[in-house]
Write a structure and sequence with these properties.
The protein is mainly beta and 265 residues long. The chain has one helix and 21 strands. A hairpin with a 5-residue loop joins strand 3 and strand 4 (55-61).
């Protein structure tokens, strides 16, 4: 009888082991420093679980050649995060044994950044304005470095604004939730590293907020850095009146919305 139990237990153990092996995978990759064009040694690489609050489930350190290996414990979804000089870089964990190669840059609080587009999208409903502001941010530093620090991008919202959600999309196209911190008197800041542009791909910040509305509202958006285009979008049912001295141009776009553009703000 003991022999029979042992055989059944062994079979069950083998079955569980095979099941675990079917889900487990090994991820290997190389981290390259694009500021120096050399392998990035000594960086921390983590496999983070998206559905568990971005908690790390595996960890490694790059060797002298920038190589790392991570053991994936399950089917995910996972992201790979590399921390280089205090700044984090992400890619989606590769599927099917693909390489997990990642590029990083040296960090500097003084990287040259500017705004290509600031877009204010306005809707009105239930006695409030629902607003989305989007900032498309250039990093044209040379040599290429990431702007890092506690307040990498500062912006201002109208008095009384309540932030509902915010996110940042990196030049790689990977969006992440990003909670701005209030600096006082309607001033806010993101602490997300601003990576160098990748061709025509830049860092995009997006903030969703709402304001009380009684049928009329005056916006006074301050321009905090060089801005190529400031655009205002709103439904046809609303009226937009530019402030004195502001030369906004009406841009025909979607027939259901109005778009007004101020160049070289």
């Amino acid at each position: 009888m003991k022999s029979r139990i042992f055989v059944l237990s062994s079979a069950l153990f083998c079955s569980l082991l095979l099941g675990a092996s079917a889900h487990a995978a090994t991820i290997t990759g190389t981290v390259t420093n694009k500021t120096t064009n050399n392998p990035s040694a000594g960086d921390t690489v983590e496999l983070v679980d998206v559905q568990a609050g971005m908690s790390p489930v595996a960890k490694a350190t790059t060797d002298a050649r920038g190589h790392y290996t991570l053991n994936e414990p399950g089917s995910g979804p996972y992201l790979i995060r590399v921390t280089h000089q205090g700044a984090g870089y992400f890619i989606a964990a590769p599927q099917g044994g693909g390489p997990g190669d990642i590029s990083v840059y040296d960090a500097s609080p003084n990287a040259s950044v500017s705004i290509e587009d600031q877009i204010i999208d306005i809707e009105a409903q239930n006695s409030q304005l629902d607003i989305t502001e989007q900032y498309v941010v250039h990093n044209t530093s040379s040599p290429k470095v990431t702007k890092s620090g506690a307040n990498t991008f500062e912006f201002t919202l109208p008095e009384g604004a309540v932030v509902d959600m915010a996110e940042a999309t990196r030049p790689s196209g990977l969006p992440t939730m990003a909670q701005p911190k209030e600096l006082g008197k309607g001033r806010f800041a993101f602490g997300v590293p601003i990576e160098p542009d990748q061709g025509d791909k830049m860092t995009v910040f997006q903030v969703h907020y709402h304001l009380p509305y009684t049928g009329k509202y005056t916006f006074k958006p301050p321009v905090t850095m060089p801005t190529d285009n400031l655009a205002v979008q709103l439904p046809k049912s609303m009226t937009f009146t530019p402030g004195q001295g502001a030369t906004y141009q009406s841009i025909p776009q979607d027939p259901s919305i109005q778009t007004y553009l101020l160049k070289n703000a």
